[in-house]
Design a protein that fits this description.
The protein is of the alpha+beta class and about 375 residues long. Helix content is about 15%, strand content about 20%. Strand 14 and strand 15 (about 230-235) form a beta hairpin. It is globular, with a radius of gyration of 21 Å.
Length: about 375
């Protein structure tokens, strides 16, 4: 393991010394609302290729949060000499100056961009090659920044312009009308919602008492995995540590690791819980904004009544679909959880934000897991 970590560190240090193209250094804006994404110098696009600046470290999650089948390019940057403090369960403690970005994009069908049609595929699959994205193959939609300033985190949503050369700040959000085409030729309308700043804050407020924004994905269990960097594959915790971005991180084998929900070789319960944790657990936890529901879907909650087993819903109204229990063991169709995951009615669906279509594969995974459970709610 030490040899692997040493090789990974050398790899990332080499990576950070190289730059895909000449760019000005990353600009951290300690205040204000830059109107163009290019003012940060995190990413650069010439309309043909999207590339990362030097020192901008990409990363992925073991199981990503679902966002209408959008693929995502995630990056992390910190000013020289700054590093985050490792924690085993919560989000890493990031210093002032940190900039986290997440670029949402869709692959294009074989015919290319017709102004509306994008391809539905596995949203966890990266279409980056050598840490660049060929813009002839994809349509960029938005890039969200999470910026750590003196007074806390601020969220800034940028929408990509028609020529894919830059993105413009849209504090009030935006609605992008798309057609989502499947490999079998079927299509469905997709009203892709770029969140406004308040909606960003509602998801990233993971502690109802503190009421401050926090990163969601940058936790040890989500990022403890390999990434295919330009110089080769390396563990992301090792890469972050080698870049100087993460202090006191243990070896990957000693850090928690969430399951990959797509990996059918992995235990079904581990996959379902990883999916519920990243998609629901930041709100549905003992401290989260949905704590009044009494339904906690994070990894800290043991399977039982607070995890929804034979638990009657609280003040869900029509969101119950006349079902009696959040999770009815052995009966996914009779469970409120699945009813809400499979709905697109804004008054019913969960999550409330971040999707307008059903994640079929995610719903199937959770359904299989619920159907595999044993128990009788009438006893």
């Amino acid at each position: 393991m030490r040899t692997t970590a040493r090789l990974g560190a050398l790899l990332v240090l080499t990576l950070l010394a190289a730059c895909a193209r000449e760019m000005p250094p990353v600009s951290f804006h300690a205040s204000g609302m830059p109107q163009k994404l290019s003012e940060w110098h995190l990413l650069a696009s010439d309309g043909r290729t999207l590339a990362l600046n030097s020192g901008v470290l990409p990363y992925d999650l073991n199981t990503p949060l679902f966002s209408d089948y959008a693929h995502k390019l995630r990056t992390l940057w910190m000013p020289p000499g700054a590093s985050a403090r490792y924690t085993s369960e919560a989000a890493f403690d990031f210093p002032v100056g940190t900039v986290i970005s997440k670029t949402f994009y869709f692959p294009l069908p074989a015919g290319g961009w017709d102004g509306k049609t994008v391809q539905r595929g596995d949203p966890a699959q990266s279409l980056a090659t050598g840490e660049t994205i060929d813009l002839r193959r994809v349509r960029l939609i938005e890039t969200r920044l999470l910026v750590r300033r003196d007074d806390g985190w601020v969220a800034l949503p940028y929408v990509w312009d028609a020529d894919q050369r830059d993105a413009t700040l849209q504090r009030i959000g935006a609605l992008v009308s798309l057609d989502l085409a499947a490999a079998d030729g079927t299509r469905e309308e997709l009203a892709y919602q770029v969140p406004d700043q308040n909606q960003c804050a509602s998801c990233h407020n993971t502690d109802n008492l503190a009421r401050v924004l926090q990163p969601i994905g940058l936790k040890a269990r989500h990022v403890n995995r390999d990434f295919d960097y330009r110089g080769g594959a390396a563990n992301q915790l090792v890469a972050m540590k080698a870049a100087g971005y993460l202090a006191e991180a243990p070896p990957p084998a000693a850090a928690p690791r969430a399951a990959d929900a797509r990996d059918a070789r992995t235990d079904l319960a581990a996959r379902a819980r990883a999916y519920l944790d990243i998609n629901c657990g930041h709100c549905h936890s003992a401290k989260g904004p949905a704590n009044t529901s009494g339904l906690f879907l994070d990894t800290a909650t043991e399977p039982g009544i607070h995890f929804g087993f034979c638990k009657q819903p609280v003040a869900a109204g029509k969101g119950t679909g006349n079902r009696l229990y959040d999770i009815k063991p052995g009966d996914a169709a009779g469970s409120v959880l699945l009813y809400r995951m499979e709905s697109t009615d804004p008054a019913v669906m969960m999550p409330e934000l971040g999707r307008s279509v059903v994640h079929r594969e995610g719903a199937q995974l959770v359904s299989d897991w619920v159907n595999a459970q044993r128990g009788d709610c009438n006893r």
